[in-house]
């Protein structure tokens, strides 16, 4: 079922990311042109200071305490640019990174200015992350890299403003609004030249990859693997809950099942395979059934879907679930799908339809659920099915009927859903008094 996940407030979830190994990230940071230029400039400044003491000033914070002011004189800056083959603009950016990341005056082996050639991966990544913070404060593009993270793929340059606006609407209180993207295109305030220069700076630090959409003939930008790691850490520090591929294998079944809603099909299958690989089939099945027994409708549906990957060793735990009023319909259908005998009792199919619909509504927009939920029946058949749902004793019934009444494209089905919702509300006190939490037991059932 192609249904887009959403947060509790209806906003799209951040994408699931797969963080690269730290050795790979450190290797990318080690060759980032801007970080190397900052290292070279720090070494140059140390040599210059040793030869002519007092030729450059120690970095000091500007009035707003956001960035260190440049400490090189005009003559030293010209000399450094020539010696290091940098333009004045590149020199200024490299100085800001060197000063902000505390690389100046620390040139002994193992110290920040020398870490790129002598440091271990953790030290290199710490230095690069410091440089990232400096660069984002300088370019005022914290909000833009957040937008790129939430998009999760290449973005056309001419669509960056729209992506940023999406991120700003989802941002936590206190998130900054970059000056370069403070208005929509055509609003009169956008500094396209400044934004392009800032993106080049981010590319030089290895934060973004600049490419092109050949069909559209436009430039694109996307976070690199190193940039994804850096922005992920910054967003986590600000309280964002961000799914990461490959981190669920050690968790309980309930955690796995709840997280799967954030994953696409391929990533979800990888997570399930890793989770099952750490458990025997019997243990995995028992844990999944316990999660289904204690969980929401969405968790129940996910648990029985994952049981398909367990195989026939899941059959005994599922057969035991036939004695549970809430799990019985799911268990009966699962067993019949796997060639086992299991009776669907009176009202089981209707209760199961409501339970599945309630589970989907936990994770998707109502209009998407309505479009996919009902069986492929003629209009009259769907309306008749919906009209009888009011008798189902399920806590999610009225929510599902309300969604059907508001979003079903067939007026007859929508009308039947509204009538059924009215009947369900009228009978709710009686159903609550009966204590019924699942479909009625089959006539000969003895749970």
Describe the structure.
By secondary structure, the chain is mainly alpha-helical. It contains 21 helices and five strands. A hairpin with a 6-residue loop joins strand 1 and strand 2 (68-69). The radius of gyration is 29 Å and the shape is elongated.
Which features characterize this protein?
single chain; 447 residues; mainly alpha; Arc Repressor Mutant, subunit A; 4 domains; three-stranded antiparallel beta sheet; elongated; disordered N terminus; disordered C terminus
> What Rg, in angstroms, do the CA atoms define?
29 Å
Structural class assignment? mainly alpha
Count of individual helical segments: 21
The succession of helices and strands, N to C, reads: HHEEHHHHHEHHEEHHHHHHHHHHHH
Overall geometry: elongated
Helicity range of the residues? 55-70%
Strand content: under 5%
Average residue pLDDT: 80
Spatial strand sequence of the major β-sheet: 3-5-4
> Which parts are unreliable, with pLDDT below 50 for 5 consecutive residues or more?
1-11, 58-70, 172-190, 432-436, 443-447
- What count of structural domains? 4
Distance between the termini: 33 Å
Tell me how many strands there are. 5
Profile the largest sheet.
Answer: 3 strands, antiparallel
